[in-house]
TrEMBL record, chains A, B:
PANTHER family: GEPHYRIN (PTHR10192:SF5), MOLYBDOPTERIN BIOSYNTHESIS PROTEIN (PTHR10192). SUPFAM superfamilies: MoeA C-terminal domain-like (SSF63867), MoeA N-terminal region -like (SSF63882), Molybdenum cofactor biosynthesis proteins (SSF53218). The keyword Transferase applies. Its EC number is 2.10.1.1. It catalyses: adenylyl-molybdopterin + molybdate = Mo-molybdopterin + AMP + H(+). Signal peptide: none annotated. It comes from Clostridium hominis. This is Molybdopterin molybdenumtransferase.
Amino acid sequence: MKSFISLEEGIDILNKNVKSIGIEEVSLLAGIGRVLSEDVFSKIDNPPFNKSAMDGYAVVYSDTEEGKKSLKVIDEVFAGSVCKSEIKKGTAVKIMTGAPIPIGADAVIKQEDVTFKDGFIEVNKTVNAEENICLKGEDIKEGSLLVKRNKRLDYADIGILASSGITSVNVYKKPKIAFISTGDEVLDIDKDLKGGKIYNSNKYTILGRLMELGYEVSYVDHENDSFTGIGDKIKRALEVADLVITTGGASVGEKDLIKEAIGYIGGEKLFWKINIKPGSAMLCSKYNEKIILSLSGNPTAALTTFELIAKTTLEKLSGKEELEINREKAILINEFKKKSSSRRFLRGKVKSDANGQKVEITQVKSGNGILSSTLNSNCLIELEAGNEGVKKGDIVTIIKF
Amino acid sequence: MKSFISLEEGIDILNKNVKSIGIEEVSLLAGIGRVLSEDVFSKIDNPPFNKSAMDGYAVVYSDTEEGKKSLKVIDEVFAGSVCKSEIKKGTAVKIMTGAPIPIGADAVIKQEDVTFKDGFIEVNKTVNAEENICLKGEDIKEGSLLVKRNKRLDYADIGILASSGITSVNVYKKPKIAFISTGDEVLDIDKDLKGGKIYNSNKYTILGRLMELGYEVSYVDHENDSFTGIGDKIKRALEVADLVITTGGASVGEKDLIKEAIGYIGGEKLFWKINIKPGSAMLCSKYNEKIILSLSGNPTAALTTFELIAKTTLEKLSGKEELEINREKAILINEFKKKSSSRRFLRGKVKSDANGQKVEITQVKSGNGILSSTLNSNCLIELEAGNEGVKKGDIVTIIKF
């Protein structure tokens, strides 16, 4: 097992050990937010036929070339039906937006550009060939690529697939997640606080975040500071879940209970501790080909490693090609004076406009456990190891939630 | 009924007519994504007691002042339990991170700053009063405001509330939405395309978008171009839904079927047509104090008014104080040459970094029905009425999805 590794090494180890959990076919609408496991091509041309872009009259365009001309209106066609009449020079068919262009017509003249009288229209304007016609396949050609493999499907993707008559999609299976909090000092929120106890906020932040990200939680439990108890619950959780997240037990007194728990069940430890602050105390391990991510019991430390490690791991488990931290740059609008020998992550609030992306450090205190610093933040700010603090106007790296 | 109004007038009319649909108490975790209907205050101090920030020894700080000194270790205390011994000068208690500070102690000296031998520690470093102690209420004071009314609860809010022992929250009720597509030309995706028909993409884009935004859809239907049929289905939908969205029927041939449908059921028309492109053909009406938003049948027009009108209406219905379009500025990185007499919305893709927010027009064609332009977009770009087109480097207004 590697110890005290860099964040990059941790990501690397996970990239080698995390695989998506398989593929399933779901109905189109159930595909929202899911990751496509194959390229999808259009089954049809779109529009499927030449159609009118306007309310007006389908004509032979050359009939409108010499200015005022009288055309006999021989039929009408609405969207959703087909005109049985054929247009020849000197005739026109009244046509509604979306209706198929009748045979023989090659342009549509707008309603406001003609005068209708006694079954004839007088053409007041010339039109070009194909004017006011949406051509068959103009938007999408049959066989063309609609949505690429590994795209997370949004509503626009679903709309394009629907318009091409795709009724179901193959997507990566959604991982089922288990959460186990640990610690003698932790009480659930429906209990009365007794001496030395604190409320279990990790359970609610992590489950809340998993809900926000759309993951299904299949197992939730708590265990006191007992490595056998923790180990047994991890084993039980892995019977119903694809990945386990634990909090706490990473440095309880002189013991690293979580390491003992993984040893007790015969799991493989992949790495222990990352050189970041907060969140260094983290164990990553594997049991029966499934990953266990053991985060610190400190609320902000747990949330930091959740965003950096757990969120990215879950993304790969759900079909993304690689674990990946998305970094952007932003201009700092306040300061953080504390030097730091290790790489540090602060919570911030980023806002963007044409003048740039500006980020404010929302974390006024630096303690691992200061949960109030999480409020109103929407990103992490990453400060390099050995930094001397940062000041207003500095360009910093941010990782958006 | 007002006609051909500005987008601002439309928003204004809806602000006057839309009210949140009531309040309900939900368990804490079910509060994720919901809008708080009242300020929530902390029931406890957080931390709830003075606790150790380190593994080490609880001491009387003045005992460490004169350098090397020997203190008798009289007890030990772990996180989650309370030390029964009282510390006096000359004694120390071994203490773990998170454990309550024993009576009599006023500082913690880190484990690495002492030498332990035969039941005594030798102090190798001085500590100050309260050093390595997280003070009771240091993070959050009892009675202090945790989360404000009208905040949409995220995982950090849920975490703070949990840490303060809040087990349930009062939130605005979630509106139930109905969707009715209309049009003779529209077929559902499981049918074979016949002459003049197109697939019903609006159903899938709108339902997909509602799912992304977390709304519950309680009624879905389709009706052909019959104003009585549409009216009857709207009435039926409003028996189970708080708001109805329809697509199509806004300018079918020479008839505005949706207006006739609202007339037929005796609904009140609030406004008809907005001066924007695409999406001008839209009817907003009211029946039994409930809102009906009738969007165009053109896919991109429907999606534009969905983002501008429907999304903001749903937000107020769900507890937001006012309907509000959030505008930002971005630098355009490509161009759109077409002049426009009316206010125009294009689809775009925005990216941000420290150098600014840059937006690309993803819509290469300008037709209302060009659904492929929706792909890979994440914002609308708003061009003012009477604009001469926009060019690379222009600062434009964007509305993020």
